[in-house]
Amino acid sequence: MKLPKELRDKRDIGGTVKTRICSIIDCSENAIRSLSENAWKKYIEKAGLKLKDSATRRLYLCKLHYNQSNKVRKSQEKIFQKKGFLDNSSSSKKGKWEI
Ligand SMILES: [Zn+2]
Questions:
Q1: What is the distance in A from the centroid of ligand 1 to the CA of 15?
Q2: CA–CA separation, 33 vs 84, rounded Å?
Q3: Backbone torsion region of residue 26, taken as left when φ is above 0, otherwise alpha when ψ lies between -120 and 50, otherwise beta
Q4: CA-CA-CA-CA torsion sign (92, 94, 95, 96)
Q5: Distance from Cα 79 to the centre of ligand 1, integer Å
Q6: What's the pLDDT at 15?
Q7: How far apart are alpha carbons 75 and 81 in whole angstroms?
Q8: What is the pLDDT of residue 9?
Q9: Distance of CA 70 to CAs 8, 33, 60, Å?
Q10: How far is the CA of 61 from the centre of ligand 1 (A)?
Q11: N or C: which end of the chain has fewer CB within 10 A?
Q12: How far, in Å, from the CA of 64 to the mean position of ligand 1?
């Protein structure tokens, strides 16, 4: 079944190509990424950025602010990985030394 032309046009307008503005205070760049607030808020705050108040659970970041937040996210992940690795190796070494 084909949709009437009217409906199809409406769909195109309300689609995913809507332009969003970056959610960082004082920034009015177009966003390149839509992110979940739960996952990204902590990284954005660590990057020293402040979010505009928003009613949605989504964050929109421009290229610059996405890069800044992503840098923090990557460095945090590295710390966690290193820590886990060191904890494992040091505890197994300890065991050997004690014998
Ligand atoms: Zn921005």
A1: 23
A2: 30
A3: left
A4: positive
A5: 26
A6: 46
A7: 10
A8: 53
A9: 37, 11, 13
A10: 5
A11: N
A12: 6
**What proportions of the chain, in percent to the nearest 5, are helix, strand and coil?**
55, 10, 30
Output the CA 27–ligand 1 centroid distance in Å: 5
**What would the DSSP string read from start to end of 27-57?**
--PBPSEEEEHHHHHHHHHHTT--BPP-SSS
Tokens of 54: 């928003």
pTM over 0.85: no
**Please, which residues have CB within 8 angstroms of residue 58's CB and are 6 or more apart in sequence?**
34, 35, 36, 37
Sign (positive/negative) of CA torsion 12, 59, 75, 87?
negative
For the chain, which residues score pLDDT lower than 70?
A: 1-17, 83-99
